[in-house]
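does this look right to u?? thymidine-5'-phosphate version
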Amino acid sequence: MEKKVGPNSLFITFEGIDGCGKSTQLLKAARFFEDLGYEVVQTKEPGGTMIGKHLRSLLLEEGAKNQRSEVLMFMLDRSEHLRQVIVPALEAGKIVLCDRFIDSTLAYQLEYPFEILDSLNHFATGGLKPNLTFYFDIPLQTAINRRKNRTHTDQIESRSIEYMENVLARYLKVCMRDPERIKIIPSNHSIDQVTKLMEGHLRGSIESNF
Ligand code: TMP
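got this back:
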């Protein structure tokens, strides 16, 4: 059974490959809600708690020693993050905006079938799902070009082009599995154009949740 947290709260997640613009759009969404007087919590995975920061550095700087450990470390990060940050904020009636969540695991830990990852995600989260998820859709080459200006690339980002193509393909399957919750935002446009598309859905989420 899917768990939900009180009617006054809203849990929104931001997904996509690195360079898709999700972190910029999360900031825009925070400003959108704050301007309307809502209390917003901005957070991210991995790394939204103290233990999560250690896990983030292990996962993204050193790299996990094997694929099973990698997926379990993301689950540990999620379990702590959910209980320490996400649920308390939702119970306090706040709007939680989270950079990556369950769908990142489904897309990136692609060595495993959805059924296994669904069970692990369910174990980590107790079945809590976002009210709304944005998937910022861009071609791989655009993301690569945007990332060229960055000085630092993590262990997962620096995997092969073939792996990243498979991540993109998995993300689209993830979107198809839950079209009610996950909104695909075409993101090969200017920041303002993407924000406009996103804000349409944000308005809708206020109307249906508050
Ligand atoms: P980011 O914080 O810069 O988006 O980077 C996080 C990296 O971790 C990114 O390459 C995606 C990866 N990741 C997974 O592989 N599985 C997960 O469950 C999560 C949350 C992130």
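The longest strand covers residues 10-15. idk if thats expected tbh
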